[in-house]
Amino acid sequence: MAIARNRSEVEAEIRAHLGIVPGFMKDIPEAYLDFEWELFKNLQLGETLIPNKYKELMGVALHSETKCRYCTLFHAETAKLFGATDEEIQEAVHYAKMSLGWSAYLNGMQTDYDEFAGELKQIGNYVKENMAQHAH
């Protein structure tokens, strides 16, 4: 295991990035703070394969379901920082609502999984073929 930086070093870096050390980070035990900050900084705030605006919209949708008001607020505000509009945030939440409804229905009806997977493959092939035909 790598040697972690001490609290004052990590908090100085957090302040440099965020302007303050948020209370939720102040509460993290020193033994974990450097590792938690690095993950947060790199995955949450850093440039990754998924553009930050879209990661945050996924976070809004996800936490509208987990019902964590802290996470929902965090991701909505961060999505705005990365350029999301109120309309995009609303669409992300609507998408989560629709997707969760289908999840409840398919699970509640105990839809055959293998049949469902086969139908999705069939639909995917059909759509790809039609997209290729319309492109020419």
From TrEMBL:
This is Carboxymuconolactone decarboxylase-like domain-containing protein. InterPro entries: AhpD-like, AhpD_core, CMD-like. Pfam families: CMD. It comes from the Bacteria. Residues 27-108 form the Carboxymuconolactone decarboxylase-like domain. Gene3D superfamilies: AhpD-like.
